[in-house]
Design goal:
With 425 residues, the chain is of the alpha/beta class. The chain is 38% helix and 12% strand. The protein folds into two domains: 318 residues, Alkaline Phosphatase, subunit A (3-Layer(aba) Sandwich), CATH 3.40.720.10; 57 residues. The chain is built from twelve helices and nine strands. The strands form two sheets. It has a seven-stranded mixed β-sheet, with helices on both faces. The chain has a two-stranded antiparallel ribbon with strand order 5-6. Strand 5 and strand 6 form a beta hairpin. Helix 6 packs parallel to helix 9, helix 7 runs antiparallel to helix 8 and helix 9 packs parallel to helix 11. It starts with 5 loop residues before the first helix and ends in a 22-residue tail after the last helix. 43% of the residues are buried.
């Protein structure tokens, strides 16, 4: 099914509901935001993709200085190379533990367990900042994603992990249960949900007495989410009308179908305005399994540790497969008009690797970061930047400052410098 959004949908909404709704302050503000969108003013979006292990320098690095010439692993992006920003030379805490805990939070594990010591992760920072502007604050997806504590990369503000949805059908249903609802039906559902939440909150508050400190932290987190949801339900209902794609098929552990199914949902969610924040985690600590369908049955971690007859070719095959699926999403976004450019121009799509550039390395002294899009958000495109040992934490801080709060002083433990070389002057 061909999916379209946007300006037509906004006009239809305003026409369908008529001028009487504009007398209500909330709907007046909503109409203003819709008209601004038609005139080219677009809100930023953030998409974060995380894959395990390392990249070989000869696979990842551009092949020439000057105009960006992509290396082997980035060949699927050739048609988009003017929309890319490749960074390397960033430094972080080494090992799988550092990669899992520090990459998104700037708060690395202190005991090697791979669990961040605090939050939020960068995606959840944006989700908290923008949560009142979309029906769904954020969407966390997984591709053959492990769910052990040390597999997690998404953390709430209080430092608790947020698991990923692995099923393409489950992800689609979560996003589009919020779309094209009859306002009267939605009002009834919201009223019933508010009543249930009120009962649950009272029960949880009563249960707090007598709990130990660690259990209380978990309960407090749950209560915080309940209270936030109660506040959301008190706000006027925002109808979201959008042409939807067909639901993806259940993938049954087929890694390509899982990823492409997620891509379809992500693209539709971003163009419809269901959410502005998405993360995709492929595997977890040490990468994913399930590459049999591309002829690599031994798993990502084994390949990265040179446990196959052709480890160089096999690692390129896995990372090229990752690039093909990320390029599939980026290409859809680039083809969709948005504001004064494309949906990709109004989005930062960032691909993090768990470990650095090197052969069978656990080091994170030369971290590669791939960024697509963001030209409408002040980011440089068509460029490669070697930061030569600058802390990875400053990159996360730069993203937070550029897309979020300009007065933000720091992010995590030591992120407090703006990396101006990745921004337009």
């Amino acid at each position: 099914m061909k999916a379209t959004i946007s300006n037509t949908t906004r006009r239809h909404f305003l026409k369908a509901f008529g001028g009487s709704l504009l007398a209500i302050p909330f709907f007046s503000g909503l109409a203003s935001r819709m008209l601004q969108a038609e005139e080219g003013v677009e809100a930023p979006r953030f998409v974060m993709i995380f894959t395990g292990n390392n990249q070989f320098p000869s696979h990842w690095m551009p092949t020439a200085s000057g105009p960006l010439e992509l290396g082997p692993v980035h060949q699927p992006f050739n048609a988009l190379k003017e929309k890319l920003l490749l960074l390397n030379g960033l430094k972080g805490v080494s090992g799988h533990s550092g990669g899992m805990s520090e990459t998104t939070t700037n708060q690395p594990s202190k005991n090697g367990d791979g669990v961040a010591v605090g939050g939020p992760s960068i995606d959840q920072y944006f989700a908290n900042l923008w949560k009142a502007q979309t029906p769904l604050r954020s969407l966390e997806l997984g591709v053959n994603a492990g769910n052990s504590p040390n597999d997690q990369i998404i953390y709430s503000s209080s430092g608790l992990p947020i698991p990923a949805i692995g099923s393409p059908v489950g992800a689609f249903n979560k996003v589009f249960n919020l779309t094209n609802e009859d306002p009267r039906v939605a009002a009834g559902k919201r009223k019933r949900e508010a009543s249930v939440l009120d009962i649950i909150a009272k029960d949880l508050t009563s249960a707090q007495r007598g709990l130990g400190p660690r259990t209380r932290v978990l309960l407090d987190e749950h209560l915080t989410h309940l209270r936030e949801r109660e506040k959301e339900l008190k706000r006027p209902y925002m109808p979201l009308m959008c042409n939807l794609p067909e639901s993806p098929e259940e993938a049954q552990d087929r890694i390509t179908r899982i990823w492409r199914g997620h891509n379809k949902t992500i693209f539709a969610a971003l163009r419809c305005g269901t959410t502005r924040v998405v993360s995709v985690r492929v595997g977890g600590w040490g990468g994913a399994d399930g590459y049999d369908e591309i002829g690599l049955p031994s798993g990502h971690h084994n390949v990265a540790h040179r446990g196959t007859a052709d480890p160089d070719g096999d690692l390129l095959g896995i990372n090229l497969f990752h690039a093909q699926n990320i390029a599939d999403l980026a290409t859809q976004m680039e083809a969709f008009p948005c504001g004064n450019g494309s949906l990709l121009d109004n989005t930062i799509l960032v691909w993090f690797n768990e470990l650095g550039l090197g052969v069978e390395t656990h080091q994170r002294t030369n971290l590669p970061v791939f960024i697509a899009g963001g030209s409408a958000l002040g980011f440089v495109n068509g460029k490669h930047v070697d930061f030569k040992g600058v802390s990875h934490q400053h990159l996360i801080y730069t993203l937070a400052r550029q897309l979020g709060e300009k007065e933000l002083k720091s992010f995590g433990e030591e992120g407090d410098q703006i990396l101006t070389r990745m921004l337009r002057s």
